[in-house]
Amino acid sequence: MPPHPAPPQPLVHPYPTVVLANGERPAHAVALGQLRGAATIVCCDGAAQSLLQLGMTPTYIVGDMDSLSPALRQRFADRIYHESEQESNDLTKAIRLCRAKGLRSATILGATGKREDHTLGNISLLAGYADELSVQMLTGYGALHVASGHGTFASFAGQQVSLFCLSAEARITTGNLRYPLHDSPLPALWMGTLNESQGDTFSLRCTGKVVVFREYPAG
User: Fold this and answer.
1) HSE-up of 162 (CA within 13 Å, CB side)?
2) Are 217 and 156 in contact (CB under 8 A)?
3) CB contact at 8 A, 171 and 209
4) What is the C-alpha separation between 161 and 23, in angstroms, rounded?
5) Which residue has the higher pLDDT, 6 or 91?
6) Each residue of 138-158: pLDDT tens digit?
7) How far apart are CA 205 and CA 110, in angstroms?
8) What is the pLDDT of residues 104-148, one digit of tens each?
9) What spatial distance separates the first Cα and last Cα of the chain, rounded to whole Å?
10) Regarding beta strands 160-165 and 195-196, do their DSSP bridges make them parallel or antiparallel, or are they unpaired?
11) Domains of the chain
């Protein structure tokens, strides 16, 4: 008897750990719900200030501390992990701390907005993070996940879907998207953008790793 197919991956996983980067402060209800429901909040450096403005306090603060005020350094001295090396950004340092603390999954917030170079850099790092733990990134507009192999995604008719290949060997076959792909490479980042779901699920079969963006439902 063939194995039962895996259930569609939901738009958002209720992970208990949130990593808050120092980009655009979470404002969408989906992102804020993840933040307010988190058991552990790891702040990237100056993101601690944004968290305080939302009425919450960090569990850990990690980074080179170049954007954390002296007052907050003193206030949260018991939970600061100062990493001065410049070979990785603060978001990567936060993911490393999650692994060191034995955390197995994380929702990344505040990783987009503000400077475009930071946004592109943070999204491009998702595939590497997925080798370390289960991870999702939520923005003001939708959710990003890393796909590999074969999977089905929960969706809705008309949902905007974009696919980004982060490795040269990646090839993609899709099911139930408006613009189908058949063992197709996407050598330029724009080539998989602005697709559209045709129903309550869509499927991907891919080699290599692909970042999948799905927009939030309206309202």
Assistant:
1) 16
2) yes
3) no
4) 23
5) 91
6) 999 999 999 989 999 999 999
7) 29
8) 999 999 999 888 998 999 999 999 999 999 999 999 999 999 998
9) 42
10) antiparallel
11) 17-140 (3.40.50.10240), 144-215 (2.60.120.320)
pTM listed for this prediction: 0.94
pLDDT score recorded for residue 3: 54
- List Cα–Cα distances, 5 to 13, 44, 155, 203, in angstroms: 19, 38, 17, 12
- Which residues, at least 6 apart from 45, have a Cβ–Cβ distance to it below 8 Å? 22, 61, 62, 63, 64, 65, 66, 67, 68, 90
Degrees, nearest 5: CA angle 213-88-94: 65
CA distance 20 to 53: 13
The letter for the amino acid at 70 is P
Q: Look at the chain and count its residues.
A: 219
Q: Return d(Cα 24, Cα 45) in angstroms, integer.
A: 14
Q: What is the CA radius of gyration of the chain?
A: 18
Q: What is the DSSP string of the chain?
A: -PPPPPPPBPS----SEEEE-SSSPP-SHHHHHHHHT-SEEEEETTHHHHHHHTT---SEEEE--TTS-HHHHHHTGGGEEE----SS-HHHHHHHHHHHTT--EEEEES-SSS-HHHHHHHHHTHHHHTTTSEEEEE-SSEEEEEEEEEEEEE--TT-EEEEEE-STT-EEEEESBSS--SSB---SGGGG-SEEB-SSEEEEEEEEEEEEEEEPPP-
Residue pair 15/136 in contact (Cβ under 8 Å)? The answer is yes
